[in-house]
Amino acid sequence: MRTFEIDGGTGGGFGSTAGGLLSLTRGISAPGFAMNFSRNEEIYGEDEPADFVYRVVSGAVRISRILSDGRRQIASFQLAGDVFGLEPGQVHALCAEAITDCRIALIKRSALDRAADRDSGAARELWGLTAKDLQRLQEHMLLLGRKGALERVSAFLLEMSDRASGRQTIELPMSRSDIGDYLGLTIETVSRTLTQLEREGVIGLPSFRQVKICDRKALESWAG
Amino acid sequence: MRTFEIDGGTGGGFGSTAGGLLSLTRGISAPGFAMNFSRNEEIYGEDEPADFVYRVVSGAVRISRILSDGRRQIASFQLAGDVFGLEPGQVHALCAEAITDCRIALIKRSALDRAADRDSGAARELWGLTAKDLQRLQEHMLLLGRKGALERVSAFLLEMSDRASGRQTIELPMSRSDIGDYLGLTIETVSRTLTQLEREGVIGLPSFRQVKICDRKALESWAG
DNA sequence: CGTTGCATTGAAATCCCTCAAGCGAGGTGG
DNA sequence: CCACCTCGCTTGAGGGATTTCAATGCAACG
Hints:
- The structure is a homodimer.
- Chain A is of the alpha+beta class.
- Chain A has six helices and 14 strands.
- In chain A, the strands form four sheets. In chain A, strands 1-4-11-6-9 form a five-stranded antiparallel beta sheet. In chain A, strands 5-10-7-8 form a four-stranded antiparallel beta sheet.
- In chain A, helix 1 crosses helix 2 (about 120-145) and helix 4 (about 175-185) packs across helix 5 (about 185-200).
- The longest helix of chain A is centred in the middle third of the chain and has 27 residues, at about 120-145.
- Chain A is elongated.
- At the A-B interface, strand 8, helix 1 and helix 2 of A face strand 8, helix 1 and helix 2 of B.
- The first copy, chain A, binds a DNA duplex through helix 5.
């Protein structure tokens, strides 16, 4: 089930100007609207035209690629405030799905292209967004290629903690399966590693989806 | 040992205009010069200022990150004609080293920045270079996270074959160690997988550094 | 002709995956 | 309200793919 509305949203994350005005990052504003997606709904698929850029207003999104035999690799998680789907190519190379029910702001690519043509600062900003993705991916590649399960899970928990502004107890919107496909591990290995960390007193697991960071130093020493 | 010269090179890959004129891709030209690096020499290191962008005139380069305990992940190989080192940030996040003796053309970042400010087409072109890196990395991430040794080596051989314009016998400039660190495998696994492919008649190994693709279809079916 | 550096090959160990069962929370229907 | 079902998570046992450790081979070079 999916709903959308041209601005004027009930809980919209953007201004109430007629037509809507979405701040992409700092400098770029563009007209847009918002849509609601429900859990596991596809936002866009591989090879679909990349006519929009998206910003998470609330909820969480996974960006992934799937192999023909079902193996899946999640490239990144997008949380509130994150921008995704920005690709200079004509089509999306990866697919985006809602992890939880979520509200997504959409910006037309054509509007951004026009802004980039007029204003070299805007162009630089768009480039910077792509570059940021690139750097995060480089870090992740090191993890996938050269790190063991304990290091991967530790790095993941620290990443999530940092994104939740370093709070001690973090809420994980994604399932163990999502975590596994992000880290290149099976759900069993993820689960075992988490309970191991709990037994050692490094983290607490109040519920399935909550993690309390008790010994950040220990995590950091493992995460490499 | 390293030599450099302002244009006027003996075997330079760029025009002989006074001051030098380097074509970065199709549209952008910028003044520059060329340097020679010898095998295993560092071109730039992690966290060094990113004042230049580089283009391989001849030879091969590896782009990598190294963990404190010596584990290494190679992000990409740069062959003749490839552009690398373009990062919007102030410093390089990865390091670049010469795999073989090679000749590298250098372009000042400041010149590119000026071109991007003046000309939105140039800005888009720079953005496109970063985006291309991103897409290659996304593909590679799937390999590192979800593929087995046979699939990784097959994909690597196909990638190298494609980059050598699909020739049947390809020359590998990099060592087994480099291949392993690129694919997230040990040199032993790389070696064993190659000999396995040879025994099955899929490839031929005339020498350490040469691979003959005998059964491309088989490689493609494994590479996923 | 010995040395040096890389590559191959073998045997054993390790880490993670696969398969399988059990558990617990949340939802549904009787 | 409780029984029942489902779904996601955890836990255990066993197996397999890759790593690790160790030895050998091979070509280039002084």
